[in-house]
Amino acid sequence: MTPILFVYAKGGPPLEYAIPRIAAHAEVHVLALAPLPEVTAPTWRPSCASVTEEAPREGDALVELICEHAELVGAGAVTTLSEYAVVAVAHACRRLGLAGAGGNVEAARDKRLMRHRWHQAGVPVPGFQPVREAADIDAAFDRLRPPLLLKAAWSAGSTAHVRVEDRTQAERAWQLGRDVMAASATEGYAELHSARDGVSDFLLEEIVTGRADAWFGTDSKHAWGDYVSVEGIVADGVYHPLCLTGRMPTIPPFTERAGIAPVALPQAAQRRIEEVSRAAVDALNLDTCATHTEIKLGADGEMWVIETAARFGGVMTTRQVEAVYGLDMLGMLVRQLLGEPVRYPEWMLTEGTSEGPGAAGSLVVLAADPEGRPWRDLPPWNFAAVDWHELLGEGTRIELVREAALPDGTPMPAYTEAGGANAMAALCFLTADSEQTLLADCEHVIAALPRALADAAARAGEDEAFPGQGTTDRTDRTDRTDRTDDAEADV
User: Fold this and answer.
1) pLDDT for position 220
2) Where would I find the ATP-grasp domain in this sequence (predicted)?
3) C-alpha angle 260/264/268, rounded to 5°?
4) Which of 25, 69, 360, 409 has most Cβ atoms within 10 angstroms of its Cβ?
């Protein structure tokens, strides 16, 4: 098999899922720029030919580090699944003469450049203003319609996103956002190629009004989110949209709670979304990479492109797609990077296969109620002690993603709007008979989990509530307790 260098950094699908799929098509050599998830090492390490851990570097030094390791192992391809490493890996691939995202990769990473390219190409995007100094805030409120959303230009997972109504509030939010990004950087959740830009660069953006009911209808008792993602691959400059994934409604400001596949939209609506995603990705002029394109759905069929990433969707998106649509996107990308033949669907898939579950989803566990209000008390997180049979419908299966979960007994981190997904206590993967069933089950889990965790604590003899522990920092997700025997519940 041809060697491939896999550059590991924070974020992306868990290694226990990703590494075996890459190893099915190449000899995997890991260059780790962040602490590896040893809790699942028995699952992924046997699939690796070598594993090397290095302290992250910045700019050309990081690119050179990647090139050195690629040459050392004779890599025929270099790839990553982390948002924070895509730029460095793309530049390394160009130096090595290997297939990669190409010289325009920053346009799929820096939200300011991304929107500028789309605006030039006529792709529908919300109005925006880059923020580098206080005068830019004044300019934003002079020409954009408030309320506005302050975003870190290089962030992921809704980190450092704050809704603002006026200039004064925006200035405070800008300082808060920089503090949040700096704190995230210390935990490895920041751009690696240009660390300084990752902390300091922001933009203000108009908040467009989504109308999920205009797309999904009003008959359903369960609410879909007002945006979807198009998962795809660019192969030698040609974009191949593969399928849609949907969402539950976000919580303030725009933090995701769950991703779901398939999406309960008519085929005609999915085809319209497919064409908008094609225009957005084509405008970025990428070479060869995965893509994850988020599109906001408005009234009267209106759409706005929110962002495109030159990597697969995070959390368990790749596994959702494989389970529902039968597409091993990781294997497809590896073969493409190695110059091997890949069969792409002629059109984006709009229905799941009959062989898989009806639906699959990723549920982010946050200490916030369905409206986004933080929990008053913060009991310990304890997956194994929750009675999942009481929370889920018949036939629904839930599994803990151990690489993205706090150890049982850790107090739930407090949810704050600016922190976004930084407050995640755990990630769970679910399958169900249909997307509507899965949506209903996720809604019930979110509403019932505070009581379920409190009851579990009481059963364990922890009778007190847990006020005052909301300032607990997120534990490094490499320090997980292995709970293999308790990691699934079939309901």
Assistant:
1) 63
2) 115-338
3) 130
4) 360
